[in-house]
Amino acid sequence: MHPTEEERYLFDLRGYLVVDDVLGAAELEELNRLLDAYDIWNQTPGEDLFFDFWKNDERQISAGPLHAWDRPFRQLIGHPRIVGYLAEFLGPGFRYDHGHAMFMRKGGTPFGLHGGRVPWAPAISYEVIDGLIRSGLMVVQYALCDAGPDDGGFCALPGSHKANFACPASFEPLDDPGPWIERVALRAGSVLVFTEALTHGTLPWAADHERRALFYRYAPGHLAHVGRYREDGREPPGGAYPRPSDSASDDWGPQQRRMLEPPYVHERPDTVTGEPYGPERPPTVTGEG
Ligand SMILES: O=C(O)CCC(=O)C(=O)O
């Protein structure tokens, strides 16, 4: 599904968009059941062959890579409700870059504000040229539990992906967020799509229930954000994009396989249709002169 005119307007204005009811009750139940079985809180970082971990404190864990987890997690990489947004906000050759799950328990600590347009970082840039939105890195966050307005979790400075000045350092800590911070509430099954150019962060988790969210990150077809391939299938610290062999799995359709292509430019097909799309350039003005 492509964004509506209203969604495109709001995304450009604020730097994020909430798409409700992407996952149904049965899908949520299955993903949460698998996460229960993974028993992430009781895994030891660095000792398991399946998970890569970043344990931020005793009440916050990030784990991945999602492209190597069970099929229901892999299938979300190309969720049909989402691909149209990716093509519209990243360009026709967009690719899947990396992904992880985040778990927070009550009292889990904040991640300060990051991202933002200043200082300029081409890899996470946000531009609109000739009416085309082009973002350097897009995040698709699936909420696997409700995150109410006072629960914590994702927050942002709306519009900061177009800011002209650096976010003041005094705004960065999120222990006691100022009124300029927007808390984005999400219902279980909703998706939050945002550009990494947006200044955003994580508020301390205040709810009694555990926060569970999946983060899938996508880039334009010419760009990779995380490191090299690793032949043992694990991510190096800081992440790695999927290896070509990951896309040989039977459950990837042709469109998902195109999403798992490494970054390149020459003759890259349109990720959604598989058709050639040619160089992406604004129209050239020619004339005498
Ligand atoms: O949803 C959150 O907690 C923020 C995640 C975040 O900072 C990111 O994905 O870059």
Task: Write structural notes for this entry.
The structure is a single chain. The chain is of the alpha+beta class and 289 residues long. It has one domain (5-259): Jelly Rolls (Sandwich), CATH 2.60.120. The protein contains five helices and 13 strands. The protein has helices at 5-14, 25-38, 71-75, 83-90, 254-259, and strands at 16-19, 52-57, 60-64, 95-104, 111-114, 126-129, 132-135, 138-143, 153-156, 182-183, 191-195, 200-203, 211-219. The strands form three sheets. The chain has a seven-stranded antiparallel sheet. The protein has a four-stranded antiparallel sheet with strand order 5-12-9-10, with no helix packed on it. Strands 6-7 form a two-stranded antiparallel sheet. It binds 2-oxoglutaric acid (AKG). 2-oxoglutaric acid (AKG) is lined by residues 111, 139, 141, 153-154, 200-202, 215.
Secondary-structure topology with pairs:
Layout: H1 5-14, E1 16-19, H2 25-38, E2 52-57, E3 60-64, H3 71-75, H4 83-90, E4 95-104, E5 111-114, E6 126-129, E7 132-135, E8 138-143, E9 153-156, E10 182-183, E11 191-195, E12 200-203, E13 211-219, H5 254-259
Antiparallel strand pairs: 1-11, 2-3, 3-4, 4-13, 5-12, 6-7, 8-11, 8-13, 9-10, 9-12
The chain binds 2-oxoglutaric acid.
Order of helices and strands: HEHEEHHEEEEEEEEEEH
CATH class: Mainly Beta
Distance between the termini: 44 Å
Q: Which structural class matches the secondary elements? A: alpha+beta
Question: Which CATH architecture?
Answer: Sandwich
| CATH fold call | Jelly Rolls
Which ranges are low-confidence, i.e. pLDDT below 50, for 5 or more consecutive residues? 282-289
